[in-house]
Amino acid sequence: PGCILLLTTGAVNGFQPILTPKSHMQTTFLQSANPLASIDYSETAQRDVWSLDQWATSYGVQKCPGFEITTDDGMDYYVVASQNIPAGTPVLYVPAELTFSAARIGEDYQQDLYSAEQDLSVSEAANLMPLFRLVVKILAEYELGDQSPWFPWLNSMPRFFNNAASMTFECFECLPPYAASLALKERGSFVNVQKALKYAPLSQSTLENKDLIKWAYNVALTRNTQLSDSCRRITPMADMFNHAAAPSVDMDWDEAGNCVCYAKYDIPAGSPLTVTLGDATNPSSLFATYGFLDSSSPGTFCKMMNLQDEMKDLNLGFKDVLFYQNGEIDPKVYDLVLYSVLKFDIDQRANFFNACMSGDEETKSAYYAEYWTFIFEALQTHVDRFIYKLDNLNAQAASKDPATHPRAPVIMQHNEFVKQTFLAVQASLQNMG
Fold it and tell me: Dihedral, CA atoms, 422, 174, 285, 121, nearest 10 degrees?
């Protein structure tokens, strides 16, 4: 079908509804196909992104004027505004039939996936079921080669990933403890999905191909939007938006499952069109999942991994206790450190805990005044030692041969971002002293 870019006034979302040929978009497992071409998923293979646009348009995807896919290096492609886009403009419409929906995959293939999903449940990894379904769907479409309706989209996907699922254990050794723990958790998720795939209705050659499975897993992980614990969707073309701490685009889905994206504010020509892929205060988490460093993040977790029990007592998460790039320290970090300092005085600790829970700032201020020397010394020692540790980790990463450890450079970038934040905090502490 053709594509009418903009509707006349009266349209709800600004785009012309188009009927996508559903029969073309339905795929069943184990159907016979004789593909003339298959996807080269090797890490050095080129992405065919330019064929994506024609394919998307033919299946009803609509874009506003100024929506343009571009690249700086031939590897990472993203959407940029080639002209000014006013706030509220619908910038992209993707019909529901193009979307990979974990819920719909589960409904369509209940019996085919039952044993595999039972395996995930037994492994206490039931939370991975939506992601697992997306991986299976991608592999099923891969097996069809160019006979799959989604072949142009799959062939436009990245081949090389820097995220935790692609890292080796030697990579993990170059990461600071918090980032390493997130990376190992992501690696564990990949292993659980890989194990469950042995029950999936896929060809034996696919099930035995670890490189293919890792590629499909990374595509599913990095291109999906998680709407809830049980709802993950991959929306072709909308997955081309890059991440930003202050995104310029809102993504929404109507009751029929069509995706419509709007400009959140006036977007000047030359600016990237961006969405948020996760908590902007936690660049290490984004790094572990997606493999990129979010330099726009205002700060990072204070890295006090030894105080996780205290964090739990005070109902604090990693995003609550932050060091900022400008050298500021989140007030909750002071709460955490003082609570730890008071561990040898049960009564005083209980009183301070109650003040934290009740929001009694006057009592907290009195404790800060009394124990400031201990708080300051604890913070200064932690920051100094962590900067020293980061230097050692980066020296270790720098010793790796990029030819055999191609992810070492991005690991060093992550560590350097954390170091610069800690240096700013160190300078602030020196000014306090």
Answer: -150
Contact, 195 vs 133, CB < 8 A?
A: no
pTM, rounded to two decimals: 0.90
Nearest 10 degrees: Cα torsion 28, 34, 35, 40: 90
pLDDT tens for the 433 residues of the chain, in order: 333 333 322 334 565 554 444 434 554 444 445 666 799 999 999 999 999 999 999 999 999 999 999 999 988 999 999 999 999 999 999 999 999 999 999 998 888 999 999 999 998 899 999 999 999 999 999 999 999 999 999 999 999 999 999 999 999 999 999 999 999 999 999 999 999 999 999 999 999 999 999 999 999 999 999 988 889 999 999 999 999 989 999 999 999 999 999 999 999 999 999 999 988 888 899 999 999 988 888 999 999 999 999 999 999 999 999 999 999 999 999 999 999 999 999 999 999 999 999 999 999 999 999 999 999 999 999 999 999 999 999 999 999 999 999 999 999 999 999 999 999 999 999 999 7
